[in-house]
Amino acid sequence: MNPSQIVEAVLFASDAPLNAEEISRADENLNEDLIEHIIGELNIVYSESGRAFEIRNLAEGYQILTRPELAPYLERFDTIPKSFSACKEASCTPFKKE
Fold it and tell me: What is the Cα–Cα distance from 44 to 34, expressed in whole angstroms?
């Protein structure tokens, strides 16, 4: 498996932010520097391909989030969790939740 896929899968599957050390537990070939490099590369790919999400570094760690400019569209749905408003105030939007 390619390291970028592993990092992306771990972040996508997690309900909470993860720091680089936590992500590195997924594979013995991952280290914090490599993870930070991979996250930067993934964000370039997401941005260049016009994806609706990005990986953000929050105080607690990295998390896949929808881009803030999409918040008005997401607010129209009852399926967005209550934590959405707190995230919105922090200029981020949950990509996926429970």
Answer: 15
Rounded to the nearest 5 degrees, what angle is found at the Cα of 23, between the Cα atoms of 14 and 1? 95
Residue 48: predicted pLDDT: 98
The tens digit of pLDDT for each residue in 18-51 reads 999 999 999 999 999 999 999 999 999 999 999 9
Structure tokens at 17: 């932010």
Calpha distance 5→26 (Å, rounded):
11
Q: What are phi and psi of 88, to 5 degrees?
A: -60, -40
Q: What is the mean pLDDT of the chain?
A: 85
Residues present in the chain in total: 98
Contact 97, 83 (CB under 8 A): yes
Contact 84, 93 (CB under 8 A): yes
